[in-house]
Amino acid sequence: MKLKALVAAGLVGASSLALATAAAAQDKTIRIVGFGASSGVVGIFGQNSTAAMSAAFEKINAEGGVTLADGSQARIVTEYYDDRCNAEEGISVLRRIASTDALVAIGPTCSNVAEPLFGIMQARVDDESDTGLQFPVFTDVAIKGGLAGISDWVFRNTPSEAAMYDELFGWLRETHPDATTIFGGVEEDFAHSRASWYDVMKTAADKHGFELVGEAQWLLSDTNFSNQVRGMRRAEPDIVAISAHPFTTCGVLREMARQRVEPEVLVGLTSSSSLETLSGCATEAEGLTIPTSFAPVNDEARAAAEAVVAEGGQMDLHSASAWENAMILKDVIEQVGVEGTAESLEEDRRKIRDGLAAMESAPGLLGTNQRMPDGEAVKPYVFVHARDGGWEVLHNPGS
Amino acid sequence: MDFYLGLAQIFGVHTLLGLSAYVVLLTGQVSMAQAGFYAIGAYTAGAMTAMFGLHILPAIVIAGLVSAAIACIVGFPALRVKGLMLVVATLAFGEMVRLFFFNLTWQVERNGDRVGPNGAEGFRSIRYFPENGWEVWHVTVFIWFVVVVVMGALWWMDRTRAGAVLRAVGHDETAAQSIGLNLTAVKVGAMTAGGFIAGLGGGIYAHTVTHIEHGVFGVLLATFAIAYPILGGLGSVFGTLIAVLFIQGFLIEGLRFMGEWRSLLFGALIVLAMNLRPHGLLGEHAPRLKNLFGAGPARPSDPLSTKEAK
């Protein structure tokens, strides 16, 4: 009788322990935090990133979460901090994230936040004389070229605009042999749009033999573009390239329609290949051609886009990066053996950094993304154009 | 901990910006040029350390002096106008400075890299602090040392004849002139002092964010600069500090969790605060420590109030 009681008690105890362990395993969490502009003029980018990250982490958690070094499973929990596209706030937000148990951060939205933010981080890993912040950041949206090289703790999954526009203008040269002149319009006070025109589009157009017949500048907050478009009309270009975000792109396109400026080809900025452009000026944007690293061209991309819409966002090249970052981080966490304990936090962050640095390629929604030694990415892309109120794939250079 | 120390850094540089406007406001002038002086300080100090390898201390002093010199030059013509005209004139100056840096490209070779302002792309790699082994707390202590020195100097000035002169001009220009005060000298003096403080603040700001660009120094920053002393009250330097803590600490950082609603609430809370405390959070007259702790003789609530003769 005594023996039976002891065995029963032992069994109960063992089962309780097993149940408690299982419960504890299910309770294990890994925090990956997003940050960027989710309010203000460019707030839509942050809102879409939030939706994409939430959708991606929900998918990961529904499939069992991430596997930690000890073989246990952990759920990924996330939240999103708004920096209002302000450098000071961005730095404050990252310091706040680094002071929590977050393993890695995804963000920021704005290049003018990314640049100072990356500057406060340790420039070269293991350089003990550099007291910069040591915390891995995996950028989804801020796309201005060459920023990841500022710090070894920074990685970006943004497409290479230099490669995209070089290919685009080369393709335009082949498909529009009669087009010889180009006019550039640039949103001058935004780091990304400015750099994209002067350093990327202009260079690519020149390389492929297009003669620049004029340039017009405006500001992000401008609402009147009559002078700029008048200059455009006088120049009579074959191609008009608009390096601006959706808000002023639509303003310029409406003014072009009003002044009946009808170039043979309209080229837009990567960030304008979004729903905002179509909801703002679908008719005027008809034919606008843009290279983008996201289009729902395969089952995986379509499923991801639907999941993001279900979270209240839209999938575009920026939010697609946020989705991909979540998936890439899951792989890295499992590959490098993250322990996921409070004691191992610093070590885990370093493992994430080293894991991202060691990656040579990563799966993406349109195919394999090449990871560069400087922390940048070269992603597959397609050319889309606005047609009947939607974005339609015009050409797939990878096909 | 670094997060709170980083916040303290933001409080520090914004306090300097607010104090630069406070000095000018004491003379009754509303200057929207402080963001311009702040920008001049930021670019100058950034150039001193990143391009010419100077130590941070001389760099920010030079930045302050350059800003002060320009403030003095700007002060002569600008302060001959009053009220709204002065606001417009100083706003125009601020925009002029911003557009100057928007177009300024001046880079030098340093350790194999091109360093310096690069037009609209901004001025990158102002990394004096991390490159010289300064931890976050070192930077915070440094900033607050400067803030305390500036606040102390202004607090002391407020208790001397110079402070009385500034306030006299601010209260009633005609009366001040009638007792022989040179209004232009007083106003330009205040503008110069404000320029110096803004230059110091801008110089430190550039080093805390490591990258500066023209867009930061726009109308919004100029509005913040005058909002701090007005919201805090002109009674003492502490009003500006309280307002910085209220705006940067509570409205911006404290309400971050509110997302989109934060920006809406931001304006509403400032309007509410101004309605509840129309003379600023600390009022027009500085609270005295003796009175706060119940020591010392009772004082009339308004030192300027008159008593009827018996």
TrEMBL record, chain A:
**Chain coiled-coil ranges:** none
A Pfam match? Peripla_BP_6
Xref: InterPro entries: BCAA_transport, Leu-bd, Peripla_BP_I
Top-rank taxon: Bacteria
Identify the keywords attached in UniProt to this record, alphabetized.
Answer: Amino-acid transport, Signal, Transport
One record GO biological process: amino acid transport
Give all residue intervals belonging to the Leucine-binding protein domain. Answer: 29-389
Cleavable signal peptide: 1-20
Q: Which family does it belong to?
A: Belongs to the leucine-binding protein family.
Q: What is this protein called?
A: ABC transporter substrate-binding protein
The organism's taxonomic lineage, starting at the top: Bacteria, Pseudomonadati, Pseudomonadota, Alphaproteobacteria, Rhodobacterales
UniProtKB/TrEMBL annotation, chain B:
- UniProt membrane topology term: Multi-pass membrane protein
- Segments traversing the membrane: 6-28, 35-54, 60-79, 86-106, 136-157, 188-206, 226-252
- Any idea which GO molecular function terms this record carries? branched-chain amino acid transmembrane transporter activity
UniProt KW keywords: Cell membrane, Membrane, Transmembrane, Transmembrane helix
Location(s) in or outside the cell: Cell membrane
Which InterPro entries does this UniProt record tie to the protein? ABC_transp_permease, LivM-like
UniProt xrefs under CDD domains: TM_PBP1_LivM_like
- Its recorded name reads ABC transporter permease
Give the source lineage, highest ranks first: Bacteria, Pseudomonadati, Pseudomonadota, Alphaproteobacteria, Rhodobacterales
